[in-house]
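Now read this:
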Amino acid sequence: SQIDIRMSVASFDKKKKMVKKAVKQKDVLESNGCLPETMLTLDGDPLTWYTSWATNLSDETFQWVFALFETNMRLMYEKSQWGWDPENKKNELQATTARYLVLKNDKGKEIAYCHFRIDMDHEYAVIYCYEIQVEKEYQRKGLGSIIMNVLERLAVKLDMDKIMATVFKYNIRSLNFFRKIGFEEDETNPSYDERDYLILSKPVSVL
């Protein structure tokens, strides 16, 4: 009906305004109280963190971001339909809307990061997790769960509809991780089998 259409348009406009406002917040994680006072690995090692816009990362830090991505993901991209395109990936990692949560060990060494964005996806207000990359010696120590807990807090605080991620079908570890924390195939996931990735999401209503 016309009333339903007007209501859905009003709801969509409200979400767009909300996303626009959130995108402009300088430090969206800190200003919304989403970061825990203490972070520990599963071994009990203390972690520190900082947040940054992609455009504010130092050249040295960005080189680390890209090198870690390449170490962890290059082989997966080479066998994917997208192929390995380092320039394209650098542009994505440095986009003006890209934000970073970076974790450091007790010696101050950067050991993991999350690249995320606040966006509209179709008619939904979402936090899109583009990357979680962890240095090899810190994998399987709970860092991914720490990062996703932070993003889930943010999604609740900002009144988002869902958190999303895109994962290669053959990235079994990553798929298992997201499924374990409650992600399922999103309604926008391509239904035909030729695609070699899945679009996953977790509605904020279940958090």
Q: What stands out?
A: The helical segments are 2-24, 28-31, 59-78, 86-93, 143-157, 172-180. The longest strand covers residues 110-121. The chain has a mean pLDDT of 94.
